Amino acid sequence: MTTPDYDRALIEQALKTARTRTEKAMTRFFDARRETGMDVLYDQISDYPFRVGKGLRPALVYAACQGMGGTEAQAENTATAIELFHNGALVHDDIEDISDFRRGDETLFRRHGVPIAINTGDATFVFCLSLLLDNVEQLGVRKAMRILKDFERLSRESVEGQAIELDWIHNARFDLDSEDYLRMAYKKTCWYTMIAPLRLGVVAGSGPSMVADLEDALIEVMELGYLAGIGFQVQDDLLNLTADEVLYGKEISGDLYEGKRTIMLLHFLRTAPKRQRTRAIKLLTQPRAEKEPDEVRWLLQAMHEAGSIDHGRELAQDFITRALTFEAEGLRFMAETRHRQFLREVLKYVIARLK
Amino acid sequence: MTTPDYDRALIEQALKTARTRTEKAMTRFFDARRETGMDVLYDQISDYPFRVGKGLRPALVYAACQGMGGTEAQAENTATAIELFHNGALVHDDIEDISDFRRGDETLFRRHGVPIAINTGDATFVFCLSLLLDNVEQLGVRKAMRILKDFERLSRESVEGQAIELDWIHNARFDLDSEDYLRMAYKKTCWYTMIAPLRLGVVAGSGPSMVADLEDALIEVMELGYLAGIGFQVQDDLLNLTADEVLYGKEISGDLYEGKRTIMLLHFLRTAPKRQRTRAIKLLTQPRAEKEPDEVRWLLQAMHEAGSIDHGRELAQDFITRALTFEAEGLRFMAETRHRQFLREVLKYVIARLK
Hints:
Chains A, B: Its cofactor is Mg(2+). Two copies of one chain form a homodimer. By secondary structure, chain A is an all-alpha fold.
């Protein structure tokens, strides 16, 4: 199976533009709210967002909004809020997963301790709400309220998805099939990474004449976001197991140290001979610090040999192929512009990317 | 100085009614959203709210709303959201303070671990937003949006106040005066405990004719909430140092073990002879588990002898006296009903209560 090629120049340009706009918007926003004596909080909130990420989520909001005929300005608060939400989630996730590094530097809780990191995440979520309330002036109360409703949904899906995954870890659950995984990832990843950015962009950019069909359009977008979101997450997990460490920027096999249930790991545990399965589960349930690197290397090798890595690649490829088909059929309400072209190229990018 | 007496029957009845309504509303709300397989999350979110608290915050929302001529139904979503916010904050605070017990039982993070507790707090905050979005149907979009704006403010003040306090702890800061304390408590406690419940109730219950003066009324309410909130917090800290353990339901002197900067402790550190001050700071900066109970008892006794406890009592009394005067002058926009009477009695209750 071949990885589809994508228009690198288009993708890189759009992501860079979105990152730049989002950083400017965050700086303006925080500076306006930075009260005397509160520098410490605002410095902490700004930490992760200014360790440069991909900027995928804000780029999706901008593209969906402009694809509907809207302006960059109409998308700005929402794109910035989505990027902040992502960063707040990372701050809390890093505590929950006891991760040491994030985007090439110490995680926030390693730097400032758990209490400050919890509060920084909480504060980051508060500022998502602040930004979305500012939408009233830019988009009117009706659209602003529609966006808030979707933001509530993405937040709810995210905490539910996270609850499912934490429950698996807490109860040492490994008897899971692909359906379990897909439901968890739909909630935990697809909603805030793909579905909501696309939906929120469509709402922000839709003209008054679109109103009648808006809810239908949002359902189409939800399906597309699901397919693309799973492709994105499985590719993320594949990179964690197989990427070039320098290019990828994270520790390879970190997910095995963490015991993370991925499509590949679950495939291995379902198909491996009993002895291998027992050995793997023993390793996976050990505390991170006690895991022997040799055992982790053995598990990764065994997963390769069992075809688990190939299984993940095929599944990601299948979801993206379906997403591309769906895009052609389901996004007809969006005119053919370079913004829609970006959305299409993103579908290929999510599984062809190397980091 | 004498403690003012308050109408116990009125207070107890109103708190109980508010608690009952809030519990029913939460049950209905969670049951409607409880999705197959998500029981684990909803059970965790419901844990603290159903360990019976005082119900002070929802009671304030109901009273302010009904005092403006509104109905219980108009206050319900908002009262429930405020109570949920309080419980979400407790879940995260308990991790940050490494507290073992809450309302007579293990803290959530002791029971389920830090990761699940962080996510449970996050989820609780999401449901505040869900409830407040439901206000659109009950109160119309204008009032619902006004309430969301105040909710954003209370959330922002809370995380800022928390950031100030965590920064003091992280940097072992004890060179603080009453002004520092009052600013922190205004943000961390007054807003979500007094100011916002009163303001949100006023917005929810105000008739269309009130609109012109609404923002003026909300400023009056903010001042009242500040005075009452400081009275409440200082009394809370006094109870922690001096209450009857059985009646109070929490560990006495827990705040000294925690090293919490209270009005009383800061007074002691400002006024004590150098040797006592050095001994106290040495104790306060030790990890909780290493603190010698004898040393904690010594510090408490020294604070009594230095007049620090009396200083706290006088300050709380002074704030409540000012709140009572302010109530008579500043709340004239609210008719004299049993709801306004409750608000007045609450001012006395906050410093006369024994738990």
